[in-house]
Design brief:
Blueprint lengths: L8 E2 L2 E9 L3 E8 L10 E6 L7 H13 L11 E4 L8 E4 L4 E2 H7 L5 H20 L2 E2 L8 E3 L5 E3 L6 E2 L5 H5 L12 H4 L6 H17 L10 H5 L9 H4 L5 H10 L11 H9 L8 H4 L6 H12 L9 H7 L2 E5 L7 H16 L5 E8 L13 H16 L8 E8 L3 H11 L4 E5 L5 H4 L5 H8 L3 E5 L5 H4 L1
Parallel strand pairs: 12-13, 12-15, 13-14, 15-16
Antiparallel strand pairs: 1-2, 2-3, 3-4, 4-6, 5-6, 7-9, 8-11, 9-10
Helix pairs in contact: 3-6, 3-10, 6-9, 16-18
Length: about 475
């Protein structure tokens, strides 16, 4: 496809330099011909390649992107602006996001710093979770499609292979073979199952593996047989290729790369949580493994994969609701037995109807919360003391089938700290004790529970304090 000449005008847009010339599309900087229409941010125009030698997937993927991109919002996607006539000149005009792609980062940092890899992985998982909340699976996550912005936020690009739960899947209707980038495609995509949000989690695992080791876990297969190997094959453990890989990071990566979707993280929010809190990652055999399973174990996996029936997952948003991150705010002072009992009952009820949900138990303390010796007033001692109390309370919960962790935050503003924690960790539900005084008083006193309920980015359950009948006696 011939590049457009700078200065060309298309439907009121002036074309400038070419930003990217790829195998699927060309991308140009553009501006409005009329200054009065300037949206206040930079623009780019994406034009698909449609020469006689290009495959049908180019135009089909453009139709998919044209269908999905206008429905997306938030800081993790470029804003949609306009689209061209498919029969005359197809194009999409969108916001230009400054930054560099993850591919640039990988090229500049082979086997990068572990801490930085965790930060980037967390940002990518948060961006993917935002997409899943909008009922969209990306299905083509790779380094070139992840943009790292200067503020640390990750943005996702190119939705040509994506799937929206509420729109026709044009690629599934038009294509007869697996659609995706061979190095990053998930096992279920290979057999034609699209729309499972855990496919994106598999791709994030490939990204993390490459950032850590400098290699791809399954190589870059070019045949259908090579692709199908990942339905049963276990990649070389990262610690075998790089000795300084911590067990928690290998645990995370290999869990993402499980062939069976049900054995991966149930949501990108859970993955982001573990990357943000490595000290709370439970390490299993995956995290300590030094070599791939032997031939006998691999043969068993091959037999299992040969007889497996892949089923489509629920709608992404529905699946997220089934496995939420639940946060309980546990007070550490001026608290009655009734409050602690009521919180415990509320948490057990919430987890009982949500198998696979994650629990975060949080207490907020002030650095000057102690009035004893100078040593005991130190932040470290306070933190350890209250963390031990929080763990003791958590031990009384029914946590069968659930991941749980304890977190002590230090802040002078309890409500603000709880809201900030919920927002930063994609918490779906907050359980907090209700205020002890009546509604009339709460009209004049801005209590912590009321502030949390007002400002939280998620559902808040206010728990009324009560004791069982036998305790009331």
């Amino acid at each position: 496809m011939k590049l457009l000449t700078p200065g060309t005008e298309i439907d009121g847009f002036i074309v400038h330099d070419c930003v990217h010339a790829g195998g699927m599309a060309h991308i140009y900087h553009v501006t409005y011909a009329q200054i009065a229409r300037d949206p206040g941010f930079a623009l780019v125009m994406k034009i698909p390649r449609m020469t006689p030698g290009d495959g049908a997937e180019n135009i089909v993927s453009f139709e998919v992107e044209l269908q999905i991109h206008p429905t997306l919002s938030g800081p993790h996607v470029p804003r949609f602006v306009a689209a061209g006539d498919l029969l005359r000149l197809p194009y999409i005009v969108m916001e230009y996001l400054p930054g560099s792609t993850l591919q640039h980062w990988i090229d500049a940092h082979p086997r990068g710093n572990i801490g930085e890899i965790a930060l980037i992985g967390n940002a990518v998982a948060v961006a993917v979770h935002s997409l899943h909340q909008q009922n969209v699976c990306h299905l083509d996550l790779k380094p070139a499609n992840v943009l790292l912005r200067e503020d640390g936020v990750a943005a996702l690009l190119d939705f040509g292979l994506s799937c929206h739960a509420h729109y026709p899947d044009l690629l599934a209707e038009e294509m007869r073979s697996a659609v995706g980038s061979p190095a990053w495609i998930a096992p279920e995509q290979i057999v034609g199952v699209r729309g499972d949000l855990r496919s994106d989690i598999f791709a994030i695992g490939v990204l993390l593996y490459e950032m850590v080791t400098g290699e791809l876990p399954f190589g870059a297969p070019t045949t259908q047989g090579g692709l199908r190997q990942r339905l049963w094959m276990t990649p070389t453990p990262p610690r075998r290729l790089r000795a300084d890989v911590p067990g928690w990071l290998q645990e995370i990566i290999l869990r993402c790369l499980e062939p069976e979707a049900a054995r991966r993280y149930p949501s990108a929010a859970h993955l982001a949580f573990d990357l943000a809190h490595p000290d709370h990652v439970p390490i299993t055999d995956r995290g300590t493994r030094e070599s791939a399973p032997g031939a006998r174990a691999q043969f068993k996996r091959w037999i299992k994969a040969a007889g497996m029936h892949y089923q489509p997952s629920p709608l992404p948003k529905e699946q997220l609701q089934e496995v939420p991150i639940v946060m309980v705010a546990v007070p550490h002072r001026d608290v009655s037995d009734a409050t602690m009992y009521s919180l415990r009952q509320a948490v057990n009820r919430s987890l009982g109807i949500r198998p696979g949900a994650r629990l975060a138990c949080v207490s907020v303390i002030s650095p000057s919360a102690s009035n004893t010796s100078q040593h005991e007033r130190s932040e470290t001692t306070l933190h350890r003391t209250h963390l031990a109390r929080l763990k003791q309370w958590t031990a009384t919960l029914d946590l069968a089938g659930h991941s749980a962790s304890c977190h002590v935050l230090e802040s002078g503003d309890v409500a603000q700290a709880l809201v900030r924690y919920a927002r930063g960790n994609q918490v779906t539900m907050i359980i907090i004790g209700a205020a002890t005084h009546g509604l009339q008083m709460q009209r004049f006193v801005d209590t912590v529970p009321i502030r949390v309920a007002r400002d939280a980015p998620c559902t808040v359950i206010l728990v009324k304090q009560q004791l069982p009948f036998h305790a009331l006696a």
